[in-house]
Write a structure and sequence with these properties.
The chain is about 70% helix and about 5% strand. It is mainly alpha-helical and about 200 residues long. A hairpin with a 2-residue loop joins β1 and β2.
């Protein structure tokens, strides 16, 4: 496969993953699908880090657009473009790592919720993980179903950021090959010219 086509595939795949990350992070600000918690500041700490919005979102979205444009014509545009795609992919790797780290931390510490009359993070720094015991989730009184809410969205961010990390790493390798091997556009043009030449020769004969 031409390195340009590979870039196109990577870019097209990264775009929806970045959008999913942004949407998940935004939704996390509204536990229980209610706006009152963000107004009162009762938001899980890891949500405020905006790993999905900044890391897996913007830091992947911009590189994804450039990487897609690099292979927009199904061929490596030029060596400079492929070199730039390596730099953009590296930014994507950093963003995906940040999103992944924040999401894992969010899963590990659990949500901020109301227990009795106080707001706390009841599952943080515990020897046993709350993820292994669903009965423990009833500890949180408010917001409603906040544990399921956080686990579902942070798990989605873990998966999407993991895929982003792999794809951006692939693009760094792909971009390196594009820089070393050059473009494939000349090969395509050469083949077209050769066919045209043979066609003209046959017509003259």
């Amino acid at each position: 496969m031409c390195t340009g086509r590979c870039s196109h595939c990577v870019g097209v795949t990264l775009l929806p993953l970045a959008v999913i990350s942004i949407i998940c992070n935004i939704i996390l600000f509204f536990p229980g699908w209610d706006t009152k918690y963000v107004k009162d500041g009762h938001i899980t700490e890891e949500v405020k880090y905006m790993g999905g919005l900044i890391g897996g979102g913007l830091m992947v979205l911009v590189p994804a657009i450039h990487i897609r444009l690099t292979g927009a014509h199904g061929c490596c545009a030029n060596r400079c473009g492929m070199f730039l795609s390596i730099a953009f992919a590296a930014v994507g790797v950093a963003g995906a790592l940040y999103s992944f780290s924040v999401a894992v931390l969010g899963l590990q510490n659990g949500p901020l919720c109301k227990v009795a009359v106080i707001w706390t993070t009841p599952f943080k720094d515990k020897e046993d993980s709350y993820l292994n015991d669903r009965n423990w989730w009833k500890t949180c009184w408010e917001p409603k179903n906040v544990v399921e809410f956080n686990v579902g969205l942070f798990s989605t961010l873990v998966v999407t950021s993991g895929l982003q990390l792999v794809l951006c790493a692939i693009q760094m390798i792909n971009g390196l090959f594009g820089c070393l091997c050059g473009t494939c556009s000349h090969k395509g043009e050469g083949a077209i010219n050769a066919r045209n030449g043979r066609g003209l020769t046959q017509k003259r004969l």
